[in-house]
Automatic annotation (TrEMBL):
SUPFAM superfamilies: Glutathione synthetase ATP-binding domain-like. Residues 75-450 form the Circularly permuted ATP-grasp type domain. It comes from Undibacterium rugosum. It comes from the Bacteria. The lineage of its organism: Bacteria, Pseudomonadati, Pseudomonadota, Betaproteobacteria, Burkholderiales. This is Circularly permuted type 2 ATP-grasp protein.
Amino acid sequence: MARFYNEMHAGDDSAPASTRAHYQRYAQWLAEQTGEHLQRQRAEADLSFRRVGITFAVYGDDAGTERLIPFDIIPRIIPAHEWSQLQRGLAQRVQALNMFIHDIYHEQRIIKAGVIPAEQIYKNAQYRPEMQGIKVASDIYAHIAGVDIVRAGEGEFYVLEDNLRVPSGVSYMLEDRKMMMRLFTELFTQNKVAPVDHYPDMLLDNLRSVAPTGVDDPTVVVMTPGMYNSAYFEHAFLAQQMGVELVEGQDLFVNDNAVYMRTTRGPKRVDVIYRRIDDDFLDPLAFRADSTLGVPGLLAVYRAGRVSLANAIGTGVADDKSIYPFVPDMIRFYLSEDAILNNVPTYQCRKPADLSYTLANLPQLVVKEVHGAGGYGMLVGPASSQQQIEEFRQRILAKPEAYIAQPTLALSACPTFVDQGIAPRHIDLRPFVLSGKQISMVPGGLTRVALQEGSLVVNSSQGGGTKDTWVLEK
């Protein structure tokens, strides 16, 4: 069995003496709790989440369209010095990614320098030629980034992927904290846990900071595809928390080179749109003509610098898995620094040598579609049958450029309250990085947990759950 880093306990056992320093106070409290008490608290949390409507949609799921994301009552705890390192690495990475996106839509220095092959950009499904030469406020493209972090080996952090289009999950981070504070008030008097509840204020300030030039008191809205979207709860939640309007495309219109919102008091000018709609559906005049979700003429207003979109159109080119291997190169190219946070070693199947290695080692590798998301379109070799491996082999051979491969990391594990009691389960972390006049983030993020024993897939669409993430203050 592969060794993995245990977030709570050092060594191979879970004896009290092996508890890591930053977990000791919590571990002492946990040892005093009965299984019945923890079970009651978990049941109360589930009931409360269901009552509030904290669910997500599972497309194609025969069991129904709405599902509760399981919430685990044992937190993931990060000491201050580790968070400081993560924070510096995340800020560095997102700064370089924003510089990269600006560059490819303007001077294209990184392509001319031969750092990234031109075809990796121009043939990327997320590249938007319509954005070429457009000036965006403060040169910021990824205003909200969700960067997936894993810990492996002896405890080193790695970036697994960058989510720059419409990253989701921050509402669960906030609701998980609210639930923990309600169920276990005493823990927050015993432990100096850094707060996260100010995230909506930070987000609103960040969005207001990138308003079009000359707008002193910008009107911000959250734009949703509608109530049938899998993350609709989050769209409504963030609009409510920021105190701004939640709108759909039909609530907006373009007139006189500006975007307006229909209100009971008449049209109101909109300056910043936090859009949770994919590029293709934003403007039927510019992208998909059959889209009923967008706003006709929106791109023209955007090109004129009369409205700001967060995140910017065309940002997805930088979070594609075929671009991911080049992020350390971007950091060196734009910032003249080495990456603080390492990538996972990655084989690009478009390269003959990498393809040969991947095909020869499929049972040991994780293979992902470069445009895939949500845990779909991937092969976890060690957890797959011979038939599944062979079927995936044919898919790779048919279109090698559409896949990357990575070693199967022994993701770190955190004690988790499951039906059998407390047991280790594998986790990752998605901090949310805000870019505007400055780069900022709340301490922590969304910890996702693979609830099935031995599973490495933490995505909620694949049966994963969430935990509260505590960053301890010094």
